[in-house]
Amino acid sequence: MGKRRKRRKLVLKPKKRLPKIFTCPHCGAQLVSVKRVGRNYAVVCGGCGLRHEFEPRPGWMPVDYYNALVDLYLEGRVQAARGAPEGSGHETGG
Ligand SMILES: [Zn+2]
Which residues, by Cβ under 5 Å, contact ligand 1, an ion? Predict the structure, then answer.
């Protein structure tokens, strides 16, 4: 009987799935997304039109911009657009 050593390296690296859709602090809809606008990052709620642009910060993930937006919102420095969001001319998909 030989010793059988099972050496199985189980290195399961699941893909990090970063959330890309966040909950709006204003309307509560899970419709907030972070997208690149020119050189900036815009955090936009598809529900109420809450929107804010941030300068790019090194190392920041979408969730960081979102958190920053929530902070600003709670401070009353960001306000949602009133009424229905204006139809923007074009939408960049992807
Ligand atoms: Zn909203």
Answer: 24, 26-27, 45, 47-48, 50
SS3 content of the chain, % helix, strand, coil (to 5): 15, 20, 65
Residue 9's pLDDT is 78
Give the distance (Å) from ligand 1 centre to CA of residue 58. 26
Q: Show the domains of the chain with their CATH numbers.
A: 21-74 (2.20.25.190)
Region 20-30: mean pLDDT is: 95
* Per-residue pLDDT, 13: 75
The token pair that represents 42 in the structure block: 């815009």
